[in-house]
Write a structure and sequence with these properties.
Layout lengths: L7 E5 L2 H7 L10 E4 L4 E7 L6 E9 L5 E5 L10 E7 L2 E7 L7 E11 L5 E13 L14 H9 L2 E8 L2 E8 L7 H10 L2 H5 L1 H6 L4 H12 L8 E3 L18 H9 L5 E4 L1 H15 L3 E11 L6 E6 L5 E2 L5 E13 L10 E5 L6 E2 L2 E2 L4 E2 H6 L8 H9 L1 E7 L5 E7 L5 E6 L6 E3 L1 H4 L6 H11 L13 E6 L11 E9 L5 E12 L5 E14 L4 E8 L1 H4 L8 E10 L6 E7 L7 E5 L2 E2 L4 E8 L10 E6 L3 E7 L9 E8 L5 E10 L6 E10 L4
Helix pairs in contact: 3-7, 6-8
């Protein structure tokens, strides 16, 4: 018989054991953090013999405890929480089972001790706090991912590579996702709690958090600050006063911490790769497999006609007539989940885009939309399929607007949108091209069939007439090193049997990666004669003093050429972009690194410009290594001079880690460097 005076002494959540089994020990080993659909154990230490007693468990769910759930003593349905128990004299060993579709949230577990014979509660209100996350290892969870290699990359990996630049000259940015760094998990739930849905009806919002479709949609709205208390404020060109320029960020952690510490005020500033990277951090932390994706030559179709229209006058000056645009690249994320809300065939990778571009159900967000639906042109599925389809498939039409207002079509590009869609490979630091997951090969019959299906009443494009005059642009990306002169070759080829007298207009402009014009670098019009079956070359040179007024990092130079001549059915046009190659920071770590023991790294950088660099600052961070830290350069860095600083840090987590460095100065920005650090547990 149980002693009526027996009570609960302590409840041990066995954090180390449970967190290790649930793959959450990277987040914390002192708090209970578990994944749904997988059991966890707790022990209840009592003051006496517990034979004849049983435990009673109840759950209080949510930050404001909006829901209460009674945990059954025996196995229930797939939607029930239940537990089993074992006795060891003065201890109850409890194994708690959560359903695979449980609400992802903070929980409070209430434990009571009940006499079996009388049903009387002997002791109660011993509360254990824990967090429940999605479980990609659980077959019954809708985020289940059967390949362990994919889970390690898309859930557990804190080190990322982001792809930027031009489709034919792709460059990389290292990124610290840092989903397991201190306070990040708590901030993820704080983001959910600050959403418009949660503030409008917290109980209704909480009850939908079992669904990754709902949660991912909330996150994409909350990562940008448009119309809500979101994390990041966007800005796409200088000046970045009162905040941090987007290209200076090297990780998500400091952004999330700044937002939380400020009381949910937006952090300044973000652009597409930053928005996507922060969303990737949050969703990986919550347990949803997620990857960062870059689409090169990405279309922004505002009128929904699946084509982009660019207008120019006869001087090759752009005319504002449409808000359509084509970005050098655009970044979003994909998350892996089943779509029980959609017809069969839509499971798998889902496009999610937190960059504020267009409204979706009243908020600036996009997705989740099945990648499979985009490939097949099924634009009726949720969410935002037409917009995403246009990003990778839209035709680009160039028009000349005559002085009388009439438009003349100059050029139609059917294959220049959605190129080299890229993500980091699971197998190392290589780029994986996933373009064929989004669309059939460009120019194929199937690709045009899908386009027509998507556009429904698409008119057949008029065939391109083969003109006798051809216009080409040629530039070698490796020749455009920041600080040097860039030369772009314009070739005019006469395929006819007679000499051609033509008017050639060439324009060079500085632009942001998303097509915002920063300034005109030069414009020139020439009358040239091209002999029959010959090629005439013109060289457009842009010197450092011309472009430095507008370009201090990864902005681009766009060259547009327009050729007009008698006998041509329409003007001939060509356009191209090029981004500068930036110098690199050299990062070296001295000796071997051990957990919680001081290590030293050296950072060096040589000024490639002919002017001194002022206000130089190195920013260093790394998941498991150190929080974002600034190291100022004490003096100006002269032309050709090397800046050299040392930094001590104490690694806190063992494993293969990445040290990421950014250098910033008044004259030169967006200079990166990185090093791999192997942190050992013990010094033998």
């Amino acid at each position: 018989m149980a002693n009526n005076k027996v009570n609960i002494v302590t409840v041990d959540p066995r954090c180390r054991e449970n967190n290790s089994a649930h793959r959450t020990r990277e987040i914390d080993q002192t708090r209970l953090i578990v994944r749904r659909g997988q059991s966890f154990s707790i022990s209840v230490q009592c003051s006496g013999d517990v034979r004849g007693c049983t435990a009673a468990l109840d759950l209080h769910v949510g930050k404001r405890e909006e829901e209460m759930i009674s945990v059954k003593r025996e196995r229930g349905t797939d939607k029930d929480w239940w537990f089993t128990q074992r006795y060891i004299y003065d201890e109850l060993l409890l194994t708690v089972y959560s359903p695979a579709n449980a609400i992802v949230s903070p929980y409070r577990l209430g434990v009571s001790l009940v006499c079996l014979s009388s049903g009387r509660v002997l002791d109660s209100n011993k509360v254990t706090k824990f967090h429940l996350l999605y479980n990609p290892w659980c077959k019954d969870d809708v985020v289940y991912l059967p390949d362990e290699n994919l889970i390690q990359e898309y859930v557990m990996n804190e080190n990322g590579i982001l792809y930027v630049g031009e489709w034919d000259s792709i460059s990389t940015r290292r990124w610290n996702f840092g989903q397991f760094e201190d306070k990040v998990m708590d901030i993820c739930f704080e983001i959910l709690d600050n959403s418009r849905e949660a503030r409008r009806d917290s109980k209704k919002d909480l009850n939908q958090r079992y669904d990754p479709v709902y949660v991912s949609r909330i996150i994409t709205a909350m990562v940008n600050s448009n119309r809500d208390q979101g994390v990041l404020q966007g800005r796409w060109q200088e000046p970045y006063d009162g905040g941090v320029a987007p290209y200076r960020w090297t990780g998500s952690v400091s952004i999330l911490q700044k937002w939380s510490d400020s009381g949910a005020k937006p952090v300044k500033y973000g652009q597409c790769w930053v928005f996507a990277a922060v969303a990737c951090t949050v969703l990986r932390c919550l347990g949803i497999p997620t990857r960062h994706v870059t689409n090169f030559d990405s279309a922004h179709d505002t009128d929904g006609n699946l084509s982009l229209d660019y207008l120019y006058n006869e001087k090759l000056e752009g005319i504002k007539g449409s808000s359509d645009s084509s970005w050098n690249y655009h970044c979003w994320i994909e998350s892996w989940m089943k779509r029980n809300d959609l017809p069969e065939g839509n499971d798998g990778w889902q496009v999610l885009d937190p960059t504020p571009q267009e409204l979706s159900d009243g908020d600036y967000r996009c997705g989740p939309c099945p990648v499979k639906a985009i490939k097949e042109g099924n634009l009726s599925v949720k969410y935002d399929a037409p917009f995403i389809f246009a990003e990778v498939n839209a035709d680009i039409v160039y028009w000349m607007v005559k002085s009388d207002g009439k438009r003349q079509k100059m050029r139609v590009n059917q294959d220049s949108t959605g190129r080299n869609i890229s993500t980091k490979s699971v197998f190392g630091n290589r780029r994986q091209d996933i373009t064929l997951e989004y669309k059939y090969p460009e120019g194929s019959k199937k690709e045009r069939e899908v386009y027509e299906k998507a556009q429904r009443s698409l008119r057949e494009p008029s065939p391109e007439r083969q003109e006798s005059i051809k216009l080409l642009l040629s530039v070698k990306p490796e020749q455009f090193v920041f600080g040097s002169e860039v030369k772009i070759i314009v070739e005019v080829e006469n395929r006819g049997e007679r000499k051609a007298d033509v008017c050639l207009t060439m324009s060079a402009t500085a632009e942001t990666y998303n097509n915002l014009m920063l300034g005109l670098l030069q414009r020139e019009t020439k009358q040239i004669s091209v002999p029959a079956n010959k090629v005439h070359k013109e060289v457009v040179s842009v010197c450092y003093d011309d472009y430095v007024k507008y370009i201090c990092g990864k902005q681009t130079i766009k060259l547009t050429a327009l050729l007009q001549a008698e006998g041509l059915d329409r003007p001939v046009m060509a356009a191209g972009r090029i981004s500068p190659i930036m110098p690199k920071v050299i990062v070296q770590v001295s000796g071997k690194a051990y957990r919680r023991q001081q290590s030293t790294c050296t950072l060096s950088f040589t000024n490639p410009l002919k002017v001194p660099l002022k206000g130089g600052v190195f920013t260093v961070e790394g998941a498991g290594l150190l929080c974002p830290t600034e190291v100022k350069v004490n003096s100006d860095i002269g032309p050709g001079q090397k800046a050299f600083v040392k930094l001590a840090f104490n690694p806190v987590r063992p494993g293969i880690r990445k040290l990421l460095v950014d250098f910033f100065s008044d004259e030169l920005k967006d200079v990166k460097g990185n090093a791999t650090v192997i942190v050992r547990k013990f010094r033998y």
